């Protein structure tokens, strides 16, 4: 099991902010998680193991105020060191029992790099959905069967998958161009980093437009006929805000609203990444 523990004056108290301390139920040995390179879903599960619902802020001990992190003297006295890293939890996981980790080798990590979380039981609507996948598709030749579609190339109509942090549901469909207009360059670059596999690099160049601007006869995206014949829905997203030089894992401001009026497939996002 795990717990978030913030030390004040050498006395441990449960807090919404603190150093993450894992306890091995077999050995009762306590230790830290190395680094903050876990996605928001995995961080949510850590917070739930500590008695909360959601992760609000993911950081390291070094980046966090001293009053909200485990006391250095306490960690030394109790030999609390990093013991795990690479916490990876499937999207359908409901507890840490379904997650995988990697042991920490000597010299790889220190307590300054230990995971620090701010947890909460309430999140705003813009923090409910994670963008977990973006892929590009096109049907050159105009065929309407699944085998007529080319997936995973560097250009095509954008198909996104969203995951709800609240109830675990998934949404998959077209992305309305209007949703990325808050910061189109940064948002589309984040998508292209994931598509091209260049996460961690600031290099990603994009060109984007509405599907309706394409000449369908060139087969550069999904045709209107394919979209209608296969009932491909346009997602009810009114806003995506990813920030610059990040990946889709860090698109933490996504507004999904039933009031979205965008239903025209011609208004879907088309991308080319290079």
Write a short abstract of this structure.
The protein is α+β, with helices and mostly antiparallel strands and 274 residues long. It has helices at 40-49, 72-77, 177-180, 184-196, 224-229; strands spanning 2-8, 11-14, 17-23, 30-33, 54-60, 81-88, 100-103, 115-120, 129-138, 150-151, 155-164, 170-174, 206-210, 237-241, 253-256, 269-273.
Task: Please characterize this protein's 3D structure.
It is built from 5 helices and 16 strands. With 274 residues, it is α+β, with helices and mostly antiparallel strands. The longest helix has 13 residues, at 184-196. The radius of gyration is 22 Å and the shape is elongated. The protein starts with a strand and ends with a strand.
Can you lay out the helices and strands and say which pair or pack?
Blueprint: E1 2-8, E2 11-14, E3 17-23, E4 30-33, H1 40-49, E5 54-60, H2 72-77, E6 81-88, E7 100-103, E8 115-120, E9 129-138, E10 150-151, E11 155-164, E12 170-174, H3 177-180, H4 184-196, E13 206-210, H5 224-229, E14 237-241, E15 253-256, E16 269-273
Parallel strand pairs: 4-6
Antiparallel strand pairs: 1-2, 1-3, 3-4, 3-8, 5-8, 6-7, 9-10, 9-11, 11-12, 11-16, 13-16, 14-15
């Amino acid at each position: 099991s795990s717990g978030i523990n913030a030390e004040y004056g050498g006395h441990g108290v449960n807090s919404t902010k603190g150093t993450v301390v894992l306890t091995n139920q077999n050995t009762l040995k306590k230790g830290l998680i190395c680094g903050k390179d876990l996605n928001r879903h995995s961080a949510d599960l850590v917070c739930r193991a500590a008695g909360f619902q959601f992760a609000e802020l993911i950081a390291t001990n070094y980046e966090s105020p001293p009053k909200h992190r485990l006391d250095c003297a306490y960690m030394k006295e109790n030999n609390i060191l990093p013991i795990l890293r690479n916490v990876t939890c499937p999207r359908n996981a409901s507890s840490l029992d379904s997650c995988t980790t990697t042991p920490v080798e000597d010299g790889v990590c220190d307590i300054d790099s230990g995971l620090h979380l701010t947890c909460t039981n309430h999140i705003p609507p813009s923090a409910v959905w994670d963008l977990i996948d973006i892929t590009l598709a096109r049907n050159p030749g105009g065929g309407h069967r699944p085998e007529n579609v080319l997936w995973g190339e560097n250009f095509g109509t954008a198909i996104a998958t969203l995951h709800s942090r609240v109830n675990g549901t998934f949404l998959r469909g077209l992305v309305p161009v209007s949703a990325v207009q808050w910061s189109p360059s940064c948002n589309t670059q984040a998508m292209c980093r994931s598509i091209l596999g260049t996460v961690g690099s600031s290099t990603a160049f994009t060109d984007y437009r509405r599907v309706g601007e394409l000449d369908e006869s060139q087969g550069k995206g999904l045709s209107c006929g394919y979209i209608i014949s296969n009932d491909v829905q346009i997602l009810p997203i009114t806003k995506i805000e990813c920030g610059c030089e990040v990946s889709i894992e860090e698109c933490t401001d996504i507004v999904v609203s039933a009031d979205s009026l965008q239903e025209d497939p011609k208004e879907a996002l088309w991308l080319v990444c290079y």
